[in-house]
Structure formats: C-alpha cells, structure tokens
Amino acid sequence: MESRVSDAVATEAERASGEDRTSGGAAPGLAGSSSLGAARWKLLRQVLKQKHLDDCLRHVSVRRFESFNLFSITDDVEREAAEEFGAWVQYTSVFYPEYSISLRHNSGSLNIEDVLTSFDNTGNVCIWPAEEVLAYYCLRHSDAFRDLAVCELGGGMTCLAGLMVAISADVKEVLLTDGNEKAIRSILIQIENSLFLDQYRASLVDAIKRLLQPRGKAMVFAPRRGTTLNQFCNLAEKAGFSIQRHENYDEHISNFHSKFQKENQDIYDENLHYPLLLILTKSG
C-alpha cells in the first residue's frame, strides 16, 4: 500500500509542478499558490515514505512553529509506557509550576493505514499551540470552572487542557474526548484547532449545543486559518449562540505574539499559529 500511495502522491506532485511551470502568464498570487501546493505534495511523499525532510521543504509545513513555550517538557524517567508505542514526558506550567502532569507521547511515525482510514489524525501528531494556550488560560482562570462539569472536545493524544482543569479547578467532573481511537488510547478534554475541517464544522457546533445547558458557555481557541474561523462563527450564530471574540485576551500571550511577529517571521504566521479566543453562550 505504501508504494501505491507514494506513487500517487508523486504523480500529483509532478502534475502540480508541471502546472506551476506552465503558468508563466498567471497572476503572481496564483503562481505562488501552485508552487506552494507542489512543495506540500512533495513534503507529504517524503513523510509517507519516512524519509528525512529536505531543509528546503520545511518552510511549507505549518509545524515550523511549534510552541509558545508555556510549558516545560522533560522526560519522565520514573514511568514506563504501558504499551509498545510512546514515551512518558512531564509537562509543567512555566507560569504556574505547582501544576505538573505526566503524559504519553506517540514517538513513532503515523503509518499509512492510520492516515487513510482513521478519523482525523492531527491530534496524534503533537500538542498544537492552540491547546497549549488553552491549557495555560485554564490554569490562569481556574476559578471560572468552580462547580462546573467541563468537557474538552477534540483533546488529541494528551488532552492537556482538560487535564490541567482537572488538577487545578474545583470542578464537578471533567470529560475528555477525541474522535480518534488512537488518541483516546493514549489518554490516562474547551475546544482547539477543530474548526478548519469543513466536514466536521457543523457537527462540532451541534455537539457544543447538545452538551451545554441554557446559558452554558463554551471556550474556543483557534487561529483564523483563512476564513475557517469566520465560517464557524457564522454557523454558531445560526444555531442560536451569542459570541464574544477576543484577540488580546492575555498579556503574556500577546507579548509572545508580538515577539514572534518581529523575531520569527520565517516560521511564525499569525493566520495559522495565533489562537483567538471565542466565548460561545447558548441561548436561554
């Protein structure tokens, strides 16, 4: 299967590259988009074949920016993975070091069967910046969860934010969720980065509506990602939610954002990496 998939990807990459070469009369923006698309197809082929990534291709990956450095990460040498995959690591809040938790990382590569047949695998790749920011924000505002039942939707392989709520806030209960079985198996879940997949956006709005009681609130952290955030907001408003949108919701995060914009322009893209805060309130 790997050979067939890789060959198909290669064919598509060659086609995209060919279109790029023959688009000399196209508008500059279209040519740039075609070139970027071809580079990402090539990147996908190298990942599927588990090859070392070409340095020249790293700039097309959204993972070139990895973290706001809100948590320190160290190996947890006192624990061993219960299964063959993964390694235990300890996440400690930089600003609230009294809160620390051991999580299991999937250290192996995703196999092609997982990529092609599993529910969205993005949560198995890493802890994304939006979840990192959400986890930090929940720690800073832990009193807001007092006596509430909290659910994290799409927490990925660690459910970092939901677990931070569980250890820091006086809550009734915390429910951790993800649509991918592999992610759930690695968990020992607030919503982040779940808005950009067109096929799930309406279902996500419906799930939030079903979970919340009248006047209940959902906290959403997600970057703009083109028009996807606005599309989600439009769906939520049609479903009867009122929405508060915050771009500057925390001094530390805003300072990091400004610093990265000035010093890391080659890897940091506000459109992809800076999560905005949405507060959705269900109509009463």
Could you characterize the architecture of this molecule?
The protein is an alpha/beta fold and 284 residues long. The protein has ten helices and nine strands. The protein has helices at 2-21, 28-48, 112-117, 129-140, 160-168, 181-185, 198-211, 228-238, 251-263, 270-273, and strands at 71-75, 87-93, 100-105, 149-152, 173-176, 191-192, 217-222, 241-246, 276-282. A four-stranded mixed sheet has the order 6-7-9-8. A hairpin with a 6-residue loop joins strand 2 and strand 3. The protein starts with a helix and ends with a strand.
Count of alpha and pi helical runs: 10
Low-confidence stretches: 1-30, 55-61, 114-124, 183-193
How much beta, percentage-wise?
15-25%
Order of strands, main sheet, comes to 6-7-9-8
| Approximate helicity band | 40-55%
Shape: globular
How far apart the termini lie comes to 52 Å
What's the total count of β strands?
9
